Protein backbone atom coordinates (compact mmCIF):
# COMPACT_ATOMS: atom_id res chain seq x y z
CA UNK A 1 0.00 0.00 0.00
CA UNK A 2 2.85 2.39 0.76
CA UNK A 3 3.87 2.66 -2.91
CA UNK A 4 0.39 3.65 -4.06
CA UNK A 5 -0.87 7.14 -4.77
CA UNK A 6 -2.96 8.43 -1.84
CA UNK A 7 -6.22 8.47 -3.84
CA UNK A 8 -5.61 4.96 -5.21
CA UNK A 9 -4.77 3.76 -1.70
CA UNK A 10 -8.03 5.24 -0.42
CA UNK A 11 -10.03 3.60 -3.20
CA UNK A 12 -8.40 0.24 -2.54
CA UNK A 13 -9.06 0.49 1.21
CA UNK A 14 -12.68 1.43 0.59
CA UNK A 15 -13.08 -1.52 -1.79
CA UNK A 16 -11.52 -3.84 0.78
CA UNK A 17 -13.93 -2.53 3.41
CA UNK A 18 -16.94 -2.93 1.12
CA UNK A 19 -15.95 -6.49 0.29
CA UNK A 20 -15.26 -7.24 3.94
CA UNK A 21 -18.74 -6.10 4.98
CA UNK A 22 -20.58 -7.52 1.97
CA UNK A 23 -19.02 -10.99 2.08
CA UNK A 24 -18.17 -11.20 5.80
CA UNK A 25 -14.45 -11.50 5.00
CA UNK A 26 -11.56 -11.69 7.41
CA UNK A 27 -8.22 -10.12 6.49
CA UNK A 28 -4.80 -10.59 7.96
CA UNK A 29 -3.45 -7.12 7.24
CA UNK A 30 0.08 -6.08 8.21
CA UNK A 31 0.79 -2.36 8.19
CA UNK A 32 2.73 0.42 9.85
CA UNK A 33 -0.07 2.87 8.99
CA UNK A 34 -2.10 3.06 12.18
CA UNK A 35 -4.94 5.01 10.55
CA UNK A 36 -5.32 2.31 7.92
CA UNK A 37 -5.33 -0.41 10.57
CA UNK A 38 -7.94 1.52 12.54
CA UNK A 39 -10.11 1.92 9.42
CA UNK A 40 -9.91 -1.71 8.31
CA UNK A 41 -9.52 -3.80 11.46
CA UNK A 42 -11.80 -5.02 14.22
CA UNK A 43 -8.89 -6.46 16.21
CA UNK A 44 -5.25 -5.45 16.21
CA UNK A 45 -2.02 -7.12 17.30
CA UNK A 46 0.88 -4.83 18.16
CA UNK A 47 4.18 -6.53 17.41
CA UNK A 48 7.62 -5.48 18.64
CA UNK A 49 10.70 -7.32 17.33
CA UNK A 50 8.53 -10.24 16.24
CA UNK A 51 6.72 -10.58 19.59
CA UNK A 52 3.03 -9.80 20.08
CA UNK A 53 3.02 -7.29 22.95
CA UNK A 54 -0.68 -6.37 22.85
CA UNK A 55 -3.77 -7.83 21.20
CA UNK A 56 -7.38 -6.68 21.34
CA UNK A 57 -10.28 -4.79 19.82
CA UNK A 58 -9.21 -1.60 18.01
CA UNK A 59 -10.97 0.85 20.38
CA UNK A 60 -9.47 -0.89 23.41
CA UNK A 61 -5.90 -1.05 22.11
CA UNK A 62 -5.96 2.49 20.67
CA UNK A 63 -7.95 4.08 23.49
CA UNK A 64 -6.60 2.15 26.49
CA UNK A 65 -3.17 0.78 25.62
CA UNK A 66 -1.65 -1.48 28.23
CA UNK A 67 1.86 -1.84 26.78
CA UNK A 68 4.35 1.07 26.71
CA UNK A 69 5.22 0.39 23.05
CA UNK A 70 1.55 0.62 22.06
CA UNK A 71 1.31 3.93 23.92
CA UNK A 72 4.29 5.34 21.98
CA UNK A 73 3.12 4.34 18.49
CA UNK A 74 0.44 7.03 17.87
CA UNK A 75 2.82 9.81 18.91
CA UNK A 76 5.01 8.98 15.89
CA UNK A 77 2.21 9.82 13.44
CA UNK A 78 2.61 13.28 11.86
CA UNK A 79 -0.33 15.63 12.38
CA UNK A 80 -1.61 17.46 9.28
CA UNK A 81 -2.54 20.55 11.35
CA UNK A 82 0.57 22.71 11.94
CA UNK A 83 -1.10 24.35 14.96
CA UNK A 84 -1.54 21.04 16.75
CA UNK A 85 1.59 19.84 18.52
CA UNK A 86 0.85 16.48 20.12
CA UNK A 87 3.16 15.31 22.87
CA UNK A 88 5.70 12.93 21.35
CA UNK A 89 6.90 9.85 23.16
CA UNK A 90 10.48 9.40 22.04
CA UNK A 91 11.78 5.96 22.87
CA UNK A 92 15.35 5.89 24.17
CA UNK A 93 17.77 2.98 24.19
CA UNK A 94 19.10 0.67 21.57
CA UNK A 95 17.67 -2.32 19.76
CA UNK A 96 19.56 -5.34 18.43
CA UNK A 97 17.18 -7.69 16.61
CA UNK A 98 20.12 -9.94 15.70
CA UNK A 99 21.25 -10.19 19.33
CA UNK A 100 18.13 -9.78 21.50
CA UNK A 101 18.43 -9.17 25.20
CA UNK A 102 17.08 -11.77 27.62
CA UNK A 103 13.78 -10.96 29.26
CA UNK A 104 11.23 -8.62 27.76
CA UNK A 105 12.03 -7.72 24.14
CA UNK A 106 11.11 -4.06 24.87
CA UNK A 107 13.17 -3.73 28.06
CA UNK A 108 16.08 -1.79 26.48
CA UNK A 109 13.69 1.01 25.40
CA UNK A 110 10.97 0.86 28.05
CA UNK A 111 10.65 3.88 30.37
CA UNK A 112 8.99 1.67 33.01
CA UNK A 113 11.56 -1.17 33.04
CA UNK A 114 12.23 -3.03 36.30
CA UNK A 115 14.78 -5.69 37.14
CA UNK A 116 12.28 -8.49 36.49
CA UNK A 117 11.82 -7.22 32.91
CA UNK A 118 15.53 -7.66 32.21
CA UNK A 119 15.54 -11.38 32.97
CA UNK A 120 12.03 -12.81 32.60
CA UNK A 121 10.08 -12.62 29.32
CA UNK A 122 6.49 -11.60 30.05
CA UNK A 123 3.83 -14.07 28.91
CA UNK A 124 0.97 -12.92 26.71
CA UNK A 125 -1.96 -12.97 29.14
CA UNK A 126 -5.48 -11.60 29.41
CA UNK A 127 -5.78 -8.31 31.25
CA UNK A 128 -9.46 -7.95 30.33
CA UNK A 129 -11.82 -10.09 28.23
CA UNK A 130 -10.41 -10.08 24.69
CA UNK A 131 -7.46 -7.81 25.57
CA UNK A 132 -4.08 -9.55 25.88
CA UNK A 133 -0.78 -8.02 26.94
CA UNK A 134 2.83 -9.13 27.33
CA UNK A 135 4.07 -6.77 30.06
CA UNK A 136 4.93 -7.46 33.69
CA UNK A 137 3.72 -4.01 34.69
CA UNK A 138 0.71 -3.64 32.38
CA UNK A 139 -1.88 -3.86 35.16
CA UNK A 140 -0.29 -1.08 37.21
CA UNK A 141 0.58 1.41 34.46
CA UNK A 142 -1.89 4.12 33.43
CA UNK A 143 -0.97 4.80 29.83
CA UNK A 144 -2.40 7.44 27.50
CA UNK A 145 -4.41 6.36 24.48
CA UNK A 146 -5.94 8.01 21.46
CA UNK A 147 -9.61 8.35 20.67
CA UNK A 148 -10.73 5.88 18.05
CA UNK A 149 -12.74 7.27 15.15
CA UNK A 150 -16.22 5.87 14.40
CA UNK A 151 -14.86 4.20 11.25
CA UNK A 152 -12.28 2.35 13.32
CA UNK A 153 -14.66 1.19 15.98
CA UNK A 154 -15.22 -2.16 14.31
CA UNK A 155 -18.93 -1.43 13.97
CA UNK A 156 -20.33 -2.25 10.55
CA UNK A 157 -22.53 0.84 10.41
CA UNK A 158 -19.60 3.16 11.13
CA UNK A 159 -17.66 1.54 8.32
CA UNK A 160 -20.53 1.79 5.90
CA UNK A 161 -21.01 5.46 6.67
CA UNK A 162 -17.31 6.13 6.25
CA UNK A 163 -17.13 4.72 2.74
CA UNK A 164 -20.22 6.31 1.24
CA UNK A 165 -23.01 5.23 -1.11
CA UNK A 166 -21.15 2.29 -2.69
CA UNK A 167 -21.31 0.46 0.61
CA UNK A 168 -24.87 -0.83 0.27
CA UNK A 169 -24.49 -2.29 -3.24
CA UNK A 170 -20.96 -1.96 -4.56
CA UNK A 171 -19.97 -2.96 -8.07
CA UNK A 172 -17.43 -5.75 -7.94
CA UNK A 173 -15.85 -4.70 -11.22
CA UNK A 174 -15.77 -1.27 -12.84
CA UNK A 175 -18.66 -0.82 -15.21
CA UNK A 176 -17.54 -0.49 -18.82
CA UNK A 177 -18.89 -1.44 -22.15
CA UNK A 178 -17.68 -4.62 -23.82
CA UNK A 179 -18.71 -3.23 -27.20
CA UNK A 180 -15.59 -1.89 -28.90
CA UNK A 181 -17.65 0.38 -31.17
CA UNK A 182 -18.87 2.53 -28.26
TrEMBL record:
<dbReference type="InterPro" id="IPR013563">
    <property type="entry name" value="Oligopep_ABC_C"/>
</dbReference>
<protein>
    <submittedName>
        <fullName>Oligopeptide/dipeptide ABC transporter ATP-binding protein</fullName>
    </submittedName>
</protein>
<dbReference type="GO" id="GO:0005524">
    <property type="term" value="F:ATP binding"/>
</dbReference>
<dbReference type="Pfam" id="PF08352">
    <property type="entry name" value="oligo_HPY"/>
</dbReference>
<feature type="domain" description="Oligopeptide/dipeptide ABC transporter C-terminal">
    <location>
        <begin position="53"/>
        <end position="117"/>
    </location>
</feature>
<dbReference type="InterPro" id="IPR027417">
    <property type="entry name" value="P-loop_NTPase"/>
</dbReference>
<keyword id="KW-0813">Transport</keyword>
<dbReference type="GO" id="GO:0015833">
    <property type="term" value="P:peptide transport"/>
</dbReference>
<keyword id="KW-0067">ATP-binding</keyword>
<dbReference type="InterPro" id="IPR050319">
    <property type="entry name" value="ABC_transp_ATP-bind"/>
</dbReference>
<keyword id="KW-0547">Nucleotide-binding</keyword>
<comment type="similarity">
    <text>Belongs to the ABC transporter superfamily.</text>
</comment>
<feature type="region of interest" description="Disordered">
    <location>
        <begin position="146"/>
        <end position="182"/>
    </location>
</feature>
Amino acid sequence: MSGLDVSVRGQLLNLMTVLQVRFDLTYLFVSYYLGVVEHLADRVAVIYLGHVVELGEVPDVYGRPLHPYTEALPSAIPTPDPDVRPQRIVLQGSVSPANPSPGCPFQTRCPYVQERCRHEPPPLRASAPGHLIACHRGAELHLAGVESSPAGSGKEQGRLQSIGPLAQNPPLMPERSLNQNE
